[in-house]
Amino acid sequence: MATPFDPDVHRVALTDQNGNPLPIAFDPDANGGDGGFVVLEVDDVKEIDVKEIAGSSVFDHGEQDVASAGTSEQLPNNNCREATITAKKDNTGTIYIGGSTVSNASYGAYLDAGDVFTIAVENTDLIYIDADENGDGIVFCYA
Fold this sequence. Notes:
Structural class: mainly beta
């Protein structure tokens, strides 16, 4: 699973064979549409379109418990760009995070009490949780 880009952690610096820095930009169409960094050919660049990076216009939070261990629970419908999920500190078992078929045998991430997971996602209802113990749950915030 990909880690969200954090400019304080992920640094990109490309140099030529002499150690001189190369001008780079993120091209969302590179790598077959998956996006990637490309080296700019400065002599060919006449104008570069820069899209404004803006934060979300919403920030809110919620909580979700798993009523019956072994049965996945869908998070509610909330448009967002990113969600951060924290396993409740009083949980006695593990929380499993994934898609609609999440279980303790098939999951994208797991959290023990107090653990945190952040994912870029367009809606919190794409996230499902399951648990080892009835009543264990999560708190989440989204933006």
